Amino acid sequence: MKLDVLDAEKTWYQEGLQFTCSQCGNCCTGGPGYVWISKEEIVRLAEYLKITPEETVEKYCRKVAGQFSLKENRDPATGNYDCVFLTTEPAARGAGDKVVQSKRGCSIYPVRPLQCRTWPFWSENLANESNWNRAAKRCHGMNHGRKFTIEKIHALRDAKDWPDNPPTSAPKSK
User: What predicted TM-score, i.e. pTM, was given to this entire model?
Assistant: First the structure.
């Protein structure tokens, strides 16, 4: 007789998940929080900004419990806390009844921290399908586009440094 035993390796996302960044900036704003950045990433960011790592920390980082996090700016119109590197381009004028939204983005996208590079494959989003779908209500790229295998999802979830071909980058051609 064979008993059905729950396979510890099976997860609700066993068949993979879809995600393609829509560059909406929703993950860069909201309640107050932290975008952790390592010392190595601060050096990369400083090189990108053409300033010293010390200037980068002074201008763009805050120290929290011995770690660095990017600063946030409170948007007086919405009350949201925006990443210091979140940019907003004003909406172009629409034609007729066409509604045109402003475009948001990241001014340091090529050197964004690991935390940003691995969104939405964070442990809290992957804990259960309900958490994933709750995050997807704010992130229009979730459940659409590029398909990630469970192996790639776990590699991103567990990454300690910049992953090759992060989820918000176009897949590398072979």
Answer: 0.81
Convert the pLDDT of each residue in 69-116 to its tens digit.
999 999 999 999 999 999 988 766 665 666 666 778 899 999 999 999
Helices 53-60 and 39-49: crossing angle, nearest 10°? 100
Residue that is written with structure tokens 């399908």 in the block: 129
What ranges in the chain are assigned the alpha helix state H? 39-49, 53-60, 114-117, 123-126, 129-136, 150-157
Convert 112-130 to b/e letters by CB count within 10 Å (16 or more is b).
bbbbbbbbbbeeebbeeee
What is the chain's mean pLDDT, rounded? 88
Domain boundaries, the chain: 17-92+101-157
